[in-house]
Write a structure and sequence with these properties.
about 200 residues; alpha+beta; Aminopeptidase; 8-stranded mixed beta sheet; 6 helices; globular
């Protein structure tokens, strides 16, 4: 656990706990621009609340989309940001058949520390939280003896794209986003990689 003082707030960074799963789902829904909601809708047997499904997914253990792979930032006990990341390993026999998800699958960078999502609550932006979380991801990548980090950024999210470029990420591939009513972005999804 790390505490950083920014202006008049103490921001604490810590590994997520199971009870953070609902908040992780909320933040990941923001970061994914609706892609997470699309995935969760495919898992719904009824018209369940999609955040309930997301919460259930992040409550799991020993799987990549889990609270165990998430670091959160909190202020006065309230989670205001989160970063979900894990080692991306190739699955030789898996092929994504869903046309909406296939472009994202094609952008996976094997043998990298994959930042699946980072989100900061709108009220807590511009305080260096995202930068701190990204530096923590680099440290974790080094500890895992991986030589690179990867992430997918949406072309029309220019603020995030420029942020990643400033951190040393480079675009290595892009794929067109398949339009869907649940996904809030159009244009291309970009694979960005940073070598350490």
């Amino acid at each position: 656990m790390t505490t950083v003082t920014r202006s008049d707030h103490n921001i604490t960074y810590r590994p997520a706990l199971k009870q953070d799963a609902r908040r992780i789902a909320e933040l990941y829904s923001i970061a994914s621009e609706g892609v997470a909601n699309y995935v969760w809708s495919k898992l719904a047997e009824t018209e369940d609340n999609l955040l309930d499904i997301g919460q259930q997914r992040y409550e799991r253990k020993n799987t990549v989309f889990s609270y165990e792979n998430t670091v959160v930032a909190e202020v006065e006990g309230i989670v205001v940001a989160g970063l979900l990341a894990f080692e991306m390993q190739g699955e030789d026999d898996y092929v994504e058949e869903d046309p909406v998800l296939k472009p994202f699958w094609l952008l996976e960078e094997t043998n990298s520390y994959y930042i699946a999502g980072i989100a900061v609550d709108e009220s807590w932006r511009q305080l260096g939280i995202a930068n701190t979380l990204m530096r923590m991801a680099e440290e974790k990548c080094r500890n895992l003896s991986l030589g690179k980090l990867s992430l997918i950024c949406f072309e029309n999210n220019t603020i995030a794209y420029e942020f990643y470029l400033r951190l040393g990420y480079q675009e290595v591939m892009r794929k067109a986003i398949v339009p869907h009513e649940m996904i809030h972005c159009t244009g291309d999804a970009l694979l960005l990689v940073k070598a350490l």
